Amino acid sequence: MSVKAKKHLGQHFLTDESIAKNIADALTENGYNHVLEIGPGMGVLTKYLLQKKPKTTVLELDRESVAYLKDVFPIEHLNLNTTSDKFNIIEGDFLKKDLQTLFNKEQVAIIGNFPYNISTQIVFKAIENRDFVPEFAGMFQKEVAKRIAEKEGSKVYGILSVLTQAFYDVEYLFTVPPTVFNPPPKVDSGVIRLIRKEDYSLPVDEKLFFRVVKTAFNQRRKMLRSSLKTFKLSDSLKEDPIFARRPEQLSVQEFISLTQKIANNAI
Question: Is 39 annotated as contributing to ligand binding?
């Protein structure tokens, strides 16, 4: 029995066992007792997750994959007493799931070989649920993985970089070639790990921070005094040297400082 990759779901099944093990080993297993794998497909990563201490839940939208997983990973073959001991298979869409309810507000790490077409949305949902997600690891299109991990001063540094790094320490782990997938994608993939910062609360209004970052990068070639003019900045604030810079030049901490300035001095 096998599963046919479905283009509309962005499925590219990983076939290299060593890479699957390396992705699973990206988890530190610190600070949580649950792991959620998104889009397990045919379970090449799942079996290595099941060798670890935390309980594993897999969330799969494709019914054919769900049926395959239930056939390949029967409880009696896992040396488990019940499904609640170690392993749980759920059919559904991660983007529509309430993680707080699903895991009863317990800490859960997220991992997966993420579908390229929704990978950015998966990251943003993890950020929204950061109180319950201390760790996040997995495979993205290389371009997206680099963007998440990139520091200021780079052309690929942007909204995703700043909003992720405001709450998580990001590490780019390794690159994966197209040849280890079935069917092979047209681009390289990249594996990253996000570990939630010890203090992940912002010293500024969160909604304003998100709005400042997104507005600044929507016109990334302009200086901030031009791209942020919708905030009705006071004349004195516009003269602050930070507003003569472009958004990709600002670190996460400087975006926090910029948000504080806007909150305190806007008209």
Answer: yes
What tens digit of pLDDT does each residue of 42-80 get?
899 999 999 998 999 999 998 988 988 888 876 544 444
**Is 14 one of the annotated binding-site residues?**
yes
Q: Residue 132: beta bridge partners?
A: none
Residue 129 annotated as binding?
Answer: no
Q: Which two tokens stand for residue 192?
A: 């990253």
Q: State both tokens at 117.
A: 């077409």
Kindly tell me the sign of the dihedral angle through the C-alpha atoms of 51, 52, 53, 54. negative
Spatial separation of the C-alpha atoms in residues 249 and 243, rounded to whole Å: 11
- What's the predicted TM-score (pTM) here? 0.91
Rounded Cα distance between 50 and 35, Å, is 10
Q: Dig out the tokens for 116 from the structure.
A: 């390229």
Is 43 within 8 Å of 73 (Cβ atoms)? yes
Coil vs helix vs strand at 38: strand
Element (H, E) at 90: strand 87-91
Q: Does 182 carry a binding-site annotation? A: no
Q: In this structure, which amino acid lies at residue 12?
A: H
Question: Which residue in 103, 117, 113 sits closest to 45, CA to CA?
Answer: 113
Residue 60 annotated as lining a ligand binding site = yes
- For residue 158, say whether it is annotated as part of any ligand binding site: no
Q: What is the pLDDT of residues 196-234, one digit of tens each?
A: 999 999 999 999 999 999 999 999 999 999 999 899 888
Of 166, 251, 159, 161, which Cα lies nearest the Cα of 205?
Answer: 166
Closest residue by Cα to residue 224 from 257, 181, 178: 257
Q: Which two tokens stand for residue 196?
A: 């939630």
Q: Are 266 and 211 in contact (CB under 8 A)?
A: no
Query: What domains lie within the chain, and their CATH numbers?
Result: 7-196 (3.40.50.150), 206-265 (1.10.8.100)
